[in-house]
Amino acid sequence: ITSHTFGLRYFTWLSKHVQLRLRERFYTQGAASFYQEIYTQPEKYITFDRELSTLWTETFGAKLEWDVADHVQLELKTDLFYYSYAEFLPLSSRTGANLGIGMALTY
């Protein structure tokens, strides 16, 4: 599998204690050498894993971090993603979101 990733990140402080992070990630890959959409005869390696096919993805994300006290940080983040599978017949693409909330304690 040959793959390439390109990403951008932007950080800015909205206030003394709140930081905003924006990100974008583009990923592309070729299929595994043994991957086929349909196998017509038994092969040494056979897969039906869409993640081994030719694909590309795009992810956009945002994260807010609050410094609420010394050594205490809260975060709220979301990522929106799109996957495109060029050679996977049952699923040509998928779209979704990941949401997260967290707290970090450092010492």
What does it look like?
This protein has strands spanning 3-13, 18-29, 55-69, 72-85, 93-105. With 107 residues, the chain is an all-beta fold. Strands 1-2-3-4-5 form a 5-stranded antiparallel β-sheet, with no helix packed on it. It starts with a strand and ends with a strand.
Blueprint of the fold:
Layout: E1 3-13, E2 18-29, E3 55-69, E4 72-85, E5 93-105
Antiparallel strand pairs: 1-2, 2-3, 3-4, 4-5
Sheet having the most strands:
5 strands, antiparallel
User: Distance between termini?
Assistant: 41 Å
Rg, alpha carbons: 20 Å
Output the structural class. mainly beta
Features:
single chain; 61% strand; 107 residues
Briefly characterize the structure:
This protein has 107 residues and is mainly beta. It has strands spanning 3-13, 18-29, 55-69, 72-85, 93-105.
